[in-house]
């Protein structure tokens, strides 16, 4: 029976353990849902400095940036230091039909919440149709506009 030896497998496993924790923590997990005539985005930013949070919209791209600074502890011997520090960034391309000039943001308990309203022109509306001189009201139906994609 032949066995296959991969000299990089153990190194890959070790690097995955070391970097896997940092990669998972360095990301910005989010939840996104539609509630009525607006979308709500919750982004986890635990330990982020509130003054460093920056939300920016350029064209159809929503960019979120935040920073977590390292704790400066003099005279201590670190036994474990797994919490990542540095700048976090995430970009989302948002679809048409959103009012990006009216986005509101709040930060509480390590969660950034963005509320993005649907633009007036993308909201369902009633259209009056006349038939044989008698007006009839028909409600316009259709799929909701695309909100945001990661």
How are the elements arranged and paired?
Layout lengths: L6 H20 L3 E6 L2 E7 L9 E5 L2 E8 L17 E9 L9 E5 L2 E7 L8 E6 L2 E6 L8 E2 L1
Antiparallel strand pairs: 1-2, 2-7, 3-4, 4-5, 5-10, 6-7, 8-9
How would you sum up this structure, described in words?
The chain is mainly beta and 150 residues long. The chain has a domain of 102 residues: Immunoglobulin-like, CATH 2.60.40.790. The strands form three sheets. The protein has a four-stranded antiparallel β-sheet, with no helix packed on it. A hairpin with a 2-residue loop joins strand 1 and strand 2. The longest helix is centred in the first third of the chain and has 20 residues.
What's a quick, concise take on this entry?
With 150 residues, the chain is mainly beta. The protein is 13% helix and 41% strand.
- The arrangement of helices and strands along the chain is HEEEEEEEEEE
Query: Strand order of the main beta sheet, please?
Result: 1-2-7-6
The proportion of residues in beta strands is: 35-45%
Shape: elongated
Q: Structural class of the secondary elements?
A: mainly beta
The helix count comes to 1
Radius of gyration: 24 Å
**DSSP, total strands:** 10
Indicate the low-confidence ranges by residue numbers.
Answer: none
For the record, the CATH architecture of the domain at 28-69 and 83-142 stands as Sandwich
* CATH class label of the domain at 28-69 and 83-142: Mainly Beta
Average pLDDT number:
79
- Topology-level CATH name of the domain at 28-69 and 83-142: Immunoglobulin-like
Largest β sheet strand count, sense and barrel closure: 4 strands, antiparallel
> How much helicity do the residues have?
10-25%
Terminal Cα span = 47 Å
